[in-house]
UniProtKB/TrEMBL annotation:
<dbReference type="GO" id="GO:0042130">
    <property type="term" value="P:negative regulation of T cell proliferation"/>
</dbReference>
<dbReference type="InterPro" id="IPR013783">
    <property type="entry name" value="Ig-like_fold"/>
</dbReference>
<keyword id="KW-0812">Transmembrane</keyword>
<dbReference type="GO" id="GO:0006955">
    <property type="term" value="P:immune response"/>
</dbReference>
<dbReference type="InterPro" id="IPR036179">
    <property type="entry name" value="Ig-like_dom_sf"/>
</dbReference>
<keyword id="KW-0325">Glycoprotein</keyword>
<dbReference type="GO" id="GO:0042102">
    <property type="term" value="P:positive regulation of T cell proliferation"/>
</dbReference>
<feature type="signal peptide">
    <location>
        <begin position="1"/>
        <end position="18"/>
    </location>
</feature>
<protein>
    <submittedName>
        <fullName>Ig-like domain-containing protein</fullName>
    </submittedName>
</protein>
<dbReference type="GO" id="GO:0031295">
    <property type="term" value="P:T cell costimulation"/>
</dbReference>
<keyword id="KW-1133">Transmembrane helix</keyword>
<dbReference type="GO" id="GO:0009897">
    <property type="term" value="C:external side of plasma membrane"/>
</dbReference>
<dbReference type="InterPro" id="IPR007110">
    <property type="entry name" value="Ig-like_dom"/>
</dbReference>
<keyword id="KW-0732">Signal</keyword>
<keyword id="KW-0472">Membrane</keyword>
<dbReference type="GO" id="GO:0007166">
    <property type="term" value="P:cell surface receptor signaling pathway"/>
</dbReference>
<dbReference type="GO" id="GO:0071222">
    <property type="term" value="P:cellular response to lipopolysaccharide"/>
</dbReference>
Amino acid sequence: MLWLIICVGSSPFSVVVHMSSKVGLPAVLPCSVASHLEFDQTPHIQWHTLSYSVFERMGPEQFQGEAYRDRADVPEELLVRGNCSLFLQDVRFSDAGIYDSYLVYGESNIKNRIFIQSVHLAVIDHKAIKSVEIGADLILDLYTYQAEQVIFQNSNETDWTVLWEKDGVINKKGHLKKRDNKLILSRVTASSAGTYKILDSEGLALSTVKVKVTEPVLTKETETLQKQSALGKATMSMPSLNLIALFLTFNLMLQMN
């Protein structure tokens, strides 16, 4: 079926809503059509960027753009109440840009389209600073299945080393394991201090983590036990010193006689 769509009320001077999301996380682009809906009307919503069709829903029927396959939705149960917000999952750097929403209406092959809202989405990376004790585990969150590689720069060096790749070909540290979308570096040493970057397939940093490695902090109980042990060793050595002194004195007396 072919439709002729006529835009009504669209304006290049409309206010743009600005929002941001961290890469790999979900984002909700706001939209409301409550003032345009009639009680007996089946909502028909379209979301577009300047270059792509993102998502379209008319009642239970929906269309997802290729770049947004299995990641975009305007839930029908919200749409019938006038909420036409676009839900994006696993946000990518390539998702950044301006999104326009439209309400489509009309009974025949000629459809009218009313501009609703423009939303500018900025996508940013993750940054973190962690402190880990020697011998403990360092956990790096991959955040998204977009993660392809982990590189590492030691605090005292300038070169970067590839520690892990998604296909498993490279794993410079045998104790680096992937579990539940996280990387676990077991038994951290002093040389583990530095910067870790998680990269996508384009080499862009999804996450940057600066890691500081510290000496284990002794509990009061452990510290008390260590002091008692040291004191015990000192006490145990006193009889030995007394015996040696007595032996030397006895020896000296024999020589004098």
